[in-house]
Design brief:
By secondary structure, this protein is α/β, with parallel strands linked by helices. Among the domains are: about 190 residues, FAD/NAD(P)-binding domain; about 100 residues, no CATH class. It has 15 helices and 19 strands. Strands 1, 2, 9, 10, 11, 12, 18 and 19 form an eight-stranded mixed β-sheet that branches. Strands 7-6-14-15-16-13-17 form a seven-stranded mixed β-sheet, sandwiched between helices. The protein has a two-stranded antiparallel ribbon with strand order 3-4. Helix 1 links the parallel strand 1 and strand 2. The chain is globular. The structure holds flavin-adenine dinucleotide (FAD). Flavin-adenine dinucleotide binds next to helix 1, strand 2, strand 13 and helix 14.
């Protein structure tokens, strides 16, 4: 490695921001490369009618444990604030309507489920025990434990969510209610491993929280720390290609889309695997890598609708999860069934006045049939606009059936489809990247070019928390135990 060489991080979502700060804190000269004009990926927010709305960070688990730990190591303690919220689950097909109260912990969540489904109490107990056991054994979920993570495969890696629920005789209604968090990873219960599902399910049941200010404080804190650490941020550009591998199987010269070159020691990709495939040198494509890439399937994506609400006083922040059908596999395949998450929130507007808002995300496969193959800003196709208006209305109608007090008080502020998401997160627009499928390993760790690593979307746990955790894991693997432990110690975690 020469002094001139940079450690490149590709992609500036939660995963890339985390990697960039970790690498810079470890003493690397970091260049962060982002194809969009702004950094942040799905952490980014936007303003309509003077109010801020989220794109891909509405709620999370982990704010009572792993999130503050990660923020501390990154030097961003100030971005670790969140308020616990309740989760109301409505199953339209069976008429079930139950609420998991805020701050009740996973035991409280189990109690709420058992109260509502008394005939399933024994099975629910076994389900919650499994969730707890899987979370307890999740590598890296407690950064103060610096013993190297075990690499054993657990029995829960070998069973799908559906087969596990069948094995404990959890009936379909209770299974649908308990499985509704599948919308937070977008993989089908009939094919996703229990491990993957349980990690996000446990974190959300234990502590569902609304991050204060969505992704804004994380991006602001990142910019501050990046300036202190001398991280170079290059937006509006991406890696085009690399020179061929050297005798060590490494690539050190990157050509960027803006015509400049970058000498790199290592490259960390925090993007969808298909975006990595575009830039790997030809010799890296072993038949097995090609097979693996071909097998990947997208997770679900969302149609998003945003509303401001009149007479804000009555709206209590919380999550409402509506399932149109009890078959979650059908929902995630988009087979005449859907689920919509409604985040009821309170935001200060540009004048500092508190306003009530609703951000809704309805499951939708990444391809939008009604959408023309156009680019952002040029989608004035009539069919597409009508489609957006229709779904926006349907989403509002569904909510007012569940919360009649909102009737006539919802004002659409914006709407976006998976096509919109594709502009934030090339190349496919799926919410969580690649689907978790039992028997298929995730692409995470070292790539066939020896100095290239991949973290990103849902490698370990889905969502923002999981993406950050995957970056910590890949950083630890790539830079080694000594460097990792130094950072953990410097943060005062041990
Ligand atoms: C509608 C929606 C709602 C969601 N809600 C939640 C939620 O409430 N809570 C939660 O935890 N998660 C949620 N998620 C999921 C969460 O947003 C993602 O899992 C997480 O943000 C992914 O982070 P990332 O860093 O892996 O990727 P991204 O945030 O997608 O960042 C990737 C970045 O890389 C850039 N990029 C891509 N290709 C290249 C390239 N070739 N060169 C340079 N740059 C490139 C992209 O422009 C982007 O900025 C939601 C997702 C969606 C779509």
């Amino acid at each position: 490695m020469t002094d001139k060489k940079q450690t490149a991080v590709v992609g500036s979502g939660a995963g890339g921001l985390t990697l960039a700060l970790l690498l810079a804190r470890a003493g690397r000269r970091v260049t962060l490369i982002e194809s969009q004009p702004e950094i942040g990926g799905y952490l980014r927010r936007f303003t309509r009618n003077g109010v801020r709305f989220d794109t891909g960070y509405h709620f999370s688990g982990g704010y009572t444990n792993i999130m503050p730990q990660m923020m501390r190591v990154l030097g961003m303690d100030d971005a670790a604030r969140a308020d616990a919220i309740a989760n109301r689950i409505v199953l339209r097909q069976s008429g079930d309507d139950l609420t998991v109260p805020a701050r009740c912990g996973y035991r409280g969540a189990e109690e709420a489920f058992c109260r509502h489904f008394p005939g399933d109490a024994a099975a629910l107990h076994r389900l919650f025990e499994a969730l707890r056991e899987i979370w307890r054994d999740t590598p890296m979920r407690d950064l103060s434990d610096i013993t190297p993570p075990k690499l054993e495969i657990s029995r829960y890696d070998m069973i799908t969510v559906r087969d596990f629920c069948d094995s404990i005789a959890l009936r379909s209604t209770a299974s649908a209610a308990a499985g509704s968090v599948a919308m937070c990873h977008g993989s089908l219960p009939c094919e996703a491993t229990m491990t993957f599902h349980a990690r996000v399910a446990f974190a959300l049941y234990d502590d569902l929280a609304r991050p204060f200010g969505g992704g804004d404080p994380i991006i602001a804190a990142f910019k501050r720390e990046a300036a202190k650490l001398g991280i170079t941020i290059r937006t509006g550009t991406s890696l085009r290609r690399f020179d061929d591998m050297d005798g060590n199987g490494e690539c050190h010269l990157a050509h960027l889309s803006d015509g400049t070159d970058l000498e790199v020691d290592q490259v960390f990709f925090a993007v969808h695997p298909l975006a990595v495939q575009d830039v790997l040198p030809e010799r890296a494509f072993t038949p097995s890598l090609c097979r693996r890439l071909r097998r990947q399937q997208d997770s679900t994506s969302f149609f998003c609708s945003y509303y401001t609400v009149d007479d804000e006083a009555e709206l209590t922040p919380g999550l409402v999860s509506l399932l149109s059908h009890n078959d979650i596999d059908a929902i995630l395949r988009g087979e005449n069934a859907y689920s919509t998450g409604y985040l009821l929130g309170r935001e200060a507007d540009a004048q500092g006045r508190m306003r009530s808002t609703v951000a809704a995300f309805r499951t939708m496969p990444p391809g939008v049939p009604e959408a023309p193959a156009t680019r952002a800003g040029r989608r004035d196709d009539r069919r597409y606009q009508e489609f957006k208006a229709r779904i926006t209305e349907e989403i509002a109608d569904d909510l007012t059936q569940i919360c009649p007090e909102l009737r006539g008080r919802l004002h659409p502020a914006a709407a976006g489809t998976p096509l919109t998401c594709r502009d934030y997160d090339p190349p496919t627009g799926s919410a969580y990247g690649v689907r978790n499928i039992c028997g298929q390993s995730r692409l995470c760790g070292r790539l066939p070019v020896r100095n290239f690593f991949i973290a990103g979307h849902s490698a370990l746990v889905p969502g923002v928390m999981g993406t950050m955790l995957a970056s910590f894991t890949v950083f630890r693997f790539a830079l080694g135990e000594e460097v990792y432990r130094r950072l953990i110690r410097e943060a005062g975690l041990v």
